[in-house]
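Module 6 notes. Inverse folding takes a fixed backbone as the condition and produces residue identities as the prediction. Think of it as a translation problem where the source language is geometry and the target language is the twenty amino acids. Below is one complete input and output pair. Work through it position by position during the lab.
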């Protein structure tokens, strides 16, 4: 052997290395294959995965199919029918163009492709295993193409180990299937998880497709968006502020039919909401952009998620203007401000400040704050209740047992002295001073402890519904529900997954108001979707906190005296009465000492 050290890697090894960029997880396989089916002009695309795609991904399309000669090249790297020249690369009209997907998949999985051209009377099958040349044989007729991918990463143990639980991998796949279905409402998509049908959506308008795929009630929650300027057209729907989420999970952006992610364009939408959303809330949207393909570069990312616009600012402005118009037309702005008690959203951001720093005005107090948004909190500054320090995260002094006892050890007569202030505080007195309770925060704590203290078997005894309620739920939420089913049962829910897109509610926890079953469950699923996966030992707590937050009375709810007395009693019977499960204060005490000082 010559003593040289640089050599060209054999093809199968080069492919396996390059595959890492394109095929990161089972979801990548699904995405690439569905893209190929769309590029082939399919009108109907069917996807079956087993074991979250680790064992099997099977895609069937009714598109144009391939000749025998093309089939032989399909799994060769840089073999593509979609572009020929550099000119083509600058105006991509198809989802694929890199000629890498099938080669990459074939480098890390067993691949079978059955295909037949439109009009031909026989078809061909390609069989490929990583590391050896593919075989091609004649196959039974059937127009279109089927790609079957088995045993993903079986030859790459490191990758195989790197895959997450079936649940997580399935969630990625189901998100991609949602994206694909939303990208082309004119196509039929069928999606199976093993033998279970997840969805079967038929060609429809985008609005209908959103309802089918995301289970969002369009009439109640969506506003249509349309705009067209400087050769950039935007069309689609945005959610009303009430549908905003804690994460970006409800955001879908498409460029010339391709799902893309773009922080700046997502921000364009957000900015149109101005002060309609709280900090950390993300609007829901499904928007399709149409741009001359010469004016965007889609070749900046191996998985083609990101794109580069010639003029990103123009795209930003078109989106922002169109969404703002849509919200104005829907009269979201005036009705929203009119409906809500001012107190629940006192902070309004001002257009700009001399220094360019964000500026907020508290519409209740007239106080103006520069810098980051001050937390919406009463300003106590007294012990033993929580103290608030504006520049830091709030810190709390934990009250001593004696202090709690003086609060709780109230005679019924003392407890009779409760009143509601500003429709959000319950005011009472203790031996030490005035006690001001945030009704919502207090109720959250009470509900949380009630749930936590309930034994799992007691949970079974939630209130049974006379008639089970059937609700539509998106596939990714069904996945969450499966994950948390035990915890839901412990809460007092009795739920049954009746199909991959619907569940039946048979019983709900006893605190749930009649008629509120669906909204409660949806609210919890939504929050769980936003927080992502919790470790097993945190789930019970997590779901109890979410449930309490969703079920707690609102600021602005009018309370009767008996309700207030019950709330005060329940709160001070809690083991940690002074904060909510999220760590926000539930009450403050204004000591008589301080009152005395003030009257000096
Ligand atoms: P790209 O999509 O970037 O061209 P791929 O590796 O995904 O690269 O596919 C290679 C080629 O195989 C495509 O250009 C196309 O000609 C052909 N092909 C792949 N999937 C299909 C399909 N479902 N129907 C018809 N042709 C297909
Ligand atoms: Mg492709």
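Target side of the pair, the amino acids:
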């Amino acid at each position: 052997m010559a003593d040289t050290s640089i050599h060209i890697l054999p093809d199968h090894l080069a492919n396996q290395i390059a595959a890492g960029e394109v095929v990161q997880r089972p979801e990548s396989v699904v995405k690439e294959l569905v893209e190929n089916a769309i590029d082939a002009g399919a009108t109907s695309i069917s996807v079956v995965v087993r074991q979250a795609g680790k064992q099997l991904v099977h895609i069937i399309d009714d598109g144009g199919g391939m000749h025998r000669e093309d089939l032989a090249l399909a799994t060769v790297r840089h073999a593509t029918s979609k572009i020929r020249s550099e000119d083509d690369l600058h105006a991509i009209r198809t989802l694929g163009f890199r000629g890498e997907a099938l080669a990459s998949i074939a480098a890390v999985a067993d691949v079978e492709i059955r295909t037949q051209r439109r009009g031909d009377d026989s078809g061909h099958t390609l069989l490929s295993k990583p590391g050896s040349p593919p075989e091609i044989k004649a196959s039974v007729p059937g127009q279109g193409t089927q790609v079957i991918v088995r045993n993903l990463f079986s030859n790459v143990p490191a990758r195989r180990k790197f895959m997450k639980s079936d649940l997580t991998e399935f969630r990625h796949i189901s998100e991609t299937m949602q994206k694909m279905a939303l990208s082309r409402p004119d196509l039929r998509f069928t999606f199976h998880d093993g033998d279970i049908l997840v969805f079967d959506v038929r060609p429809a308008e985008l609005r209908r497709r959103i309802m089918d795929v995301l289970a969002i009630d369009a009439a109640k929650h969506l506003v249509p968006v349309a705009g067209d300027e400087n050769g950039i057209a935007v069309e689609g729907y945005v959610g009303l502020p009430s549908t905003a989420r804690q994460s970006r999970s409800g955001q879908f952006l498409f460029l010339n039919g391709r799902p893309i992610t773009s922080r700046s364009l997502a921000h364009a939408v957000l900015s149109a909401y101005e002060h309609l959303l709280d900090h950390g809330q993300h609007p829901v949207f499904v928007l399709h952009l149409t741009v001359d393909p010469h004016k965007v570069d889609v070749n900046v990312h191996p998985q083609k998620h990101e794109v580069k616009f010639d003029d990103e600012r123009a795209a930003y402005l078109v989106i922002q203007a169109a969404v703002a118009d849509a919200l104005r037309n829907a009269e979201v702005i005036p009705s929203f401000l009119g409906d809500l008690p001012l107190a629940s959203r006192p902070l309004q951001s001002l257009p700009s400040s001399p220094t360019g720093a964000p500026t907020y005005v508290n519409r209740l107090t007239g106080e103006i704050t520069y810098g980051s948004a001050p937390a919406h909190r009463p300003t106590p500054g007294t012990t033993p209740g929580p103290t608030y320090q504006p520049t830091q995260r709030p810190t709390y002094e934990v009250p001593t047992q004696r202090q709690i006892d003086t609060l709780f050890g109230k005679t019924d007569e003392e407890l009779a002295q409760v009143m509601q202030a500003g429709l959000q505080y319950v005011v009472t007195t203790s031996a030490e001073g005035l006690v001001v309770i945030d009704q919502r925060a207090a109720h959250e704590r009470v509900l949380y402890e009630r749930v936590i203290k309930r034994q799992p078997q007691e949970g079974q005894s939630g209130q049974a519904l006379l008639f089970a309620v059937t609700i539509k739920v998106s596939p990714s939420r069904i996945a969450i529900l499966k994950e948390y089913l035990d915890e839901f049962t412990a809460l007092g829910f009795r739920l049954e997954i009746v199909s991959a897109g619907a569940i039946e509610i048979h019983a709900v926890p006893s605190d749930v108001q009649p008629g509120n079953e669906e909204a409660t469950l949806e609210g919890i699923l939504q929050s769980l979707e936003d927080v992502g996966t919790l470790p097993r030992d945190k789930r019970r707590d997590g779901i109890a906190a979410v449930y309490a937050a969703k079920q707690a009375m609102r600021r602005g709810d009018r309370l009767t005296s008996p309700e207030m007395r019950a709330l005060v009693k329940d709160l001070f019977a809690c083991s940690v009465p002074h904060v909510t499960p999220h760590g926000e204060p539930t009450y403050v005490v204004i000591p008589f000492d301080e009152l005395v000082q003030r009257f000096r």
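Reference fact for the lab report: The pocket of adenosine-5'-diphosphate (ligand 1) is lined by residues 32, 36-37, 39-40, 61, 63-66, 70, 74, 79-82, 96-103, 145 (CB under 6 Å).
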